[in-house]
Amino acid sequence: MQLSRIPKLKHSDSDNFFLLAGPCAIEGEDMALRIAERIVPITEKLQIPYVFKGSFKKANRSRIDSFTGIGDEKALKILKKVSDTFGVPTVTDIHEVSDATLAAEYVDVLQIPAFLVRQTDLVVAAANTGKVVNLKKGQFMSPESMQHAVKKVTDCQNEQVWVTDRGTMFGYQDMVVDFRGIPTMKQFAPVVLDVTHSLQQPNQSSGVTGGRPDMISTIARAGIAAGTDGLFIETHFDPANAKSDGANMLHLDHLEKLLTDLTAIRKTINGL
């Protein structure tokens, strides 16, 4: 796994899991810097390779009046400031072909949302930037089918590709993680487990997605035990008032304890 090829990524040789973490959406400069300021020292102490996550815009919204962003370039410049200020790489998701070259000027990893991962033009546009491409498994897709999405990236002569599991749709308003998918998808690429989105409860009658943040530790622990290479966790200092996905976010105050426990599990797994 070529983690060392990502600019500014520290502790890539620590044999720990790597972490993509931050707010769901960039709401402003102060909040982004404040969140990064809390996460970076924790990952330094635990020697976790860390990538700051933040969406520069939100295209997949339940209602037309839902928060979508503060402006594309404004948010991307904030992601760049986080990277420059704290010396960490960044990841953001893209939704249109034109987003790929724009976002690639500011971030290190381009993420393809789960509901768009079969969009060949979008995947190819991300791959052609030369950046790491993080492919989220569609909620409607089997783990085995993700090999084709991975091949779209590698066929563009880009070997820097990850697959992220974010749960599978069960019924109409719940997600389930099938941990058998982790070793299956590791045959194709490094695998990340998106802990917080796996606990979403979408399609609520209110038009606001629900969630089960009380289960974050359970899913994360199981993911590490199952051998996931990385974790994706959305976190905020005030989830109740976050502008996007607050219902399934981890409160920043709980992050250090969780990551400490997960690091201990990882060391145990590595020693077996």
Automatic annotation (TrEMBL):
GO terms for molecular function: 3-deoxy-8-phosphooctulonate synthase activity. It catalyses: D-arabinose 5-phosphate + phosphoenolpyruvate + H2O = 3-deoxy-alpha-D-manno-2-octulosonate-8-phosphate + phosphate. One of its GO terms (biological process) is lipopolysaccharide biosynthetic process. It comes from the Bacteria. It is an enzyme of class 2 (transferase). Keywords: Cytoplasm, Transferase. InterPro entries: Aldolase_TIM, DAHP1/KDSA, KDO8P_synthase. This is 3-deoxy-8-phosphooctulonate synthase.
